[in-house]
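Hi V.,

Quick status before I head out on leave. The structure for the redesign project is tokenized and pasted below; the design run finished overnight.
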């Protein structure tokens, strides 16, 4: 496995580096060095030393997160929309349903905020 493939495999994973946990966000090859960006710090190693240095990064038993897996599936979105529309109709028919609709609305807002967090995470993972 060459250096670029090895660095690709490290993206999204956590490592113990100098006694601190770091999650690898991205890397970049410069003229005579390699820059490795983590969630806590940016490391820059000379091309001659980078393989020796990253060998010292101790993996913390986790798998790379595929951010696309975190996003809701199409059928889940359809179901969510149907639930929202059903609740709007129920509130129009029966005002006593409002407390339950408020509770459902709160849960839906939580789902929306989670999706926003997932999008932010994906942007960070892609270096945007």
């Amino acid at each position: 496995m060459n250096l670029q493939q090895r660095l690709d495999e490290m993206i999204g994973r956590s490592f113990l580096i100098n006694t601190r946990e770091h999650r690898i966000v991205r890397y970049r090859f410069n003229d005579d060095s390699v820059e490795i960006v983590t969630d806590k710090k940016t490391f820059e190693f000379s091309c001659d030393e980078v393989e020796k240095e990253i060998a010292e990064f101790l993996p913390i038993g986790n798998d790379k997160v595929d951010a696309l897996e975190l996003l809701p599936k199409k059928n889940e979105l359809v179901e969510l929309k149907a639930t929202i529309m059903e609740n709007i109709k129920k509130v129009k028919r029966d005002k006593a349903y409002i407390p339950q609709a408020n509770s459902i609305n709160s849960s839906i807002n939580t789902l929306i905020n989670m999706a926003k967090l997932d999008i932010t995470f994906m942007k960070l993972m892609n270096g945007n």
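Above is the designed sequence. The longest strand covers residues 20-29.

G. will cover questions while I'm gone.

Best,
W.
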